[in-house]
Amino acid sequence: MNALQKFSLLGCFELKQLPSYIGQLNALQALYLLGCSELKELPLSIGQLNALQALYLLGCSNLTKLPSFIGQLNALQGVYLSGCSELKELPLSIRQLNALQKLYLLGCFELKELPLSIGQLNALQGLHLSRCSEWKQLPLSFDQLNALQDIYLEGCSELKYLHFFISELNALQGFYLLGCFKWKELPLSIGQLNALQEVYLLGCS
Q1: What is the C-alpha to C-alpha distance for residues 130 and 89, in angstroms, rounded to an integer?
Q2: What does the alpha-carbon distance between residue 164 and residue 172 come to, in Å, rounded to a whole number?
Q3: What is the CA radius of gyration of the chain?
Q4: Distance of CA 192 to the CA centre of its chain
Q5: Whole-prediction pTM value?
Q6: pLDDT for 108-123, tens place per residue?
Q7: Which domains does the chain have, with CATH numbers?
């Protein structure tokens, strides 16, 4: 299967692991794992997928971690995690994903924080955090994300304010807060964001 570009597993409820030879799919560009609720980890060989551009892990509710070798995926542009309710942390090696443009974390309830190294994602354009109800702050390194265009925070009910200098995000176009009930204030420095087009606040009571 040397020409295989997309690989999808949907609703494979009994699947406990992926075969290590998946790392030999040299042309693979997109990997979709949806509803693989017994899958606890990805094989180390996933770090060999040099052509991989998009990784979708949706409803993999027993997945506890991502392998550190994910940092070797130099072509990876999008990481989409939804319903990975047992995922406790992202590997520090995520900082090596120089092509990463989109990072979506939805319903990852056990994930308490982002690694400080996220500030090294120079190509990151969109960050979507949803139902991360235990998060109390975003890492200070956030103001290093020079390419970031959109921040979307939904249901992050413990967040009160930003701990980083939002004025450093010169490319920011959209700032969205939904259901962040304890949110106290917007920083004055938000007025320095010349590229900002949309600020959306809903349920920040």
Answers
A1: 15
A2: 14
A3: 17
A4: 26
A5: 0.93
A6: 888 888 888 899 999 9
A7: 6-202 (3.80.10.10)
